[in-house]
Design brief:
This protein has helices spanning 10-13, 26-43, 47-53, 61-66, 84-97, 99-119, 122-133, 152-155, 247-282, 294-322, 328-352, 364-376, 381-393; strands at residues 139-142, 159-163, 166-177, 184-191, 197-203, 209-213, 225-236, 284-285, 288-289. The strands form two sheets. Strands 1, 2, 3, 4, 5, 6 and 7 form a seven-stranded mixed beta sheet that branches. It has a two-stranded antiparallel ribbon with strand order 8-9. The protein has 399 residues and is an alpha+beta fold.
Length: 399
């Protein structure tokens, strides 16, 4: 009996099985398509090359600026207003092509700019955000420390000591993306006077500040993560974020960026699925494409199910954000769920390739490796589960 031939749904090929893109307004879809073209033409061809070299695409700064996707209308009125749904889907598109690029962009536009937007005074926003929108200044976000990862809420060892109109920062930070080349680094430190976490903007060239790139990473190699040493770094009071008075203020920034990681994780899963699907219809064994075999189709179906579930949660998260109803626990659940499903999906994608799945030339290996970083940063799965558990029960299980 001849096999039945079915029309291939383009949305299935692209990992958008439930047509999430159609939820955008017409102009938003045009912007998404413009960014997708940029990513395909300018980012994708060098993604593996930069991953191997451990370099960030700093030469694309001017082109990124022209996309008009950095910052918000509140940062600079020349920026077209953008919905949270479009912002999330842009992050998904970036990670779909290159999670390293998505992280490079997100550290600057999400964590660094978000810290200033959420915790800075109006004067500070006016001083720093416009040049960051234009990529004249690149930002970094320094919270994690060599000995303090999940325990940053209570256990920061980097200290801030006030001397008149100056603050003196001492300590170390680790895993700080963009820090080797950043013009502005938002450093979170514990005030020795009141034991509260505060935020400071350290500008490039400040004496006592050094950032050394971490070597031998196996994930997100296109991101310049650094080990920072702060040795008597003197920061003026004018550079202390005026509305960052405790870790609760830091958490306001993390709530938004954790939602962004959920979108990025979904994009990473989409990229891995698309690579696997493309390979499955091209690669032949036993005289036929491997995509015609039941076991391979089962893996592709599982991947699409994970991706679609993550997209559905992320879309609802964006709607809640639009309504100013997004809570910390909801963002934590999205980050926890989407990164877990991503990790599962990229493993299945690599499996479709067999031995070829460990070669960068097929892209699946890069998505597989990069997923490990997305799974871990912005709060591990376990820590985010405890945030959700606290909201569900009313009891805190944090030590």
């Amino acid at each position: 009996m001849a096999e039945r031939q079915h029309r291939i749904d383009p949305a299935a090929v692209e990992g958008d099985f439930f047509h999430v893109r159609d939820l955008l307004e017409s102009e938003e879809r045009k912007k998404l398509d413009r960014v997708r073209d940029f990513l395909v033409e300018r980012v994708a061809p060098r993604a593996n090359e930069l991953w191997i070299a451990g370099e960030s695409p700093l030469d694309l700064r001017d082109e990124i600026r022209e996309l008009d996707i950095t910052g918000t209308y509140a940062d600079d009125h020349d920026i077209a207003p953008r919905s949270y749904l479009l912002t999330g889907m842009l992050g998904m598109e970036m990670s779909r092509v290159d999670p390293s690029f998505a992280t490079f962009f997100g550290v600057h536009a999400g964590l660094a700019m978000g810290s200033i937007r959420e915790c800075g005074s109006q004067e500070q926003k006016d001083r720093w955000l416009p040049p960051m929108v234009r990529w004249d200044k690149i930002g970094a976000f320094a919270l994690t420390e060599p000995l303090v990862g999940s325990g940053t809420a209570l256990g920061l060892t980097t200290t801030a000591r006030r001397e008149g109109d100056t603050w003196v920062l001492d300590g170390e930070k680790k895993w700080i993306g963009n820090a080797t080349f950043a013009d502005l680094v938002v450093v979170w430190a514990k005030d020795v006077a009141d034991e509260q976490v505060k935020g400071f903007v350290v500008e490039k060239g400040t004496p006592g500040f050094s950032a050394k790139a971490l070597q031998d990473k196996i994930s997100l190699r296109g991101v310049q993560n650094a080990h920072i040493v702060l040795d008597g770094v003197r920061v003026p009071e004018a550079n202390r974020l005026q509305h960052a008075d405790s870790f609760r203020d830091t958490a306001r920034v993390l709530k938004v960026t954790r939602g962004g990681v959920a979108w990025s994780a979904t994009g990473c899963a989409v990229g891995a699925y698309e690579a696997a699907r493309g390979y499955a219809v091209r690669r032949e064994q036993f005289g036929r494409p491997i995509g015609s075999f039941q076991l391979v189709q089962d893996l592709l179906a599982r991947m699409l199910a994970n991706i679609t579930a993550c997209q559905a949660m992320a879309v609802r998260m964006a709607r809640l954000h639009e309504e100013d109803r997004l809570g910390e626990a909801q963002a934590a659940l999205a980050k926890m769920f989407c990164t877990t499903r991503m990790r599962e999906t990229v493993a299945w994608a690599r499996e479709v390739f067999g031995g070829n799945g460990i070669l960068l030339e097929h892209d699946a290996a890069r998505f597989f490796a990069d997923a490990e970083a997305l799974y871990s940063y912005e709060g591990s799965r376990d820590m985010n589960s405890l945030i959700v558990g606290r909201a569900a029960t009313g009891y805190s299980a944090f030590v």
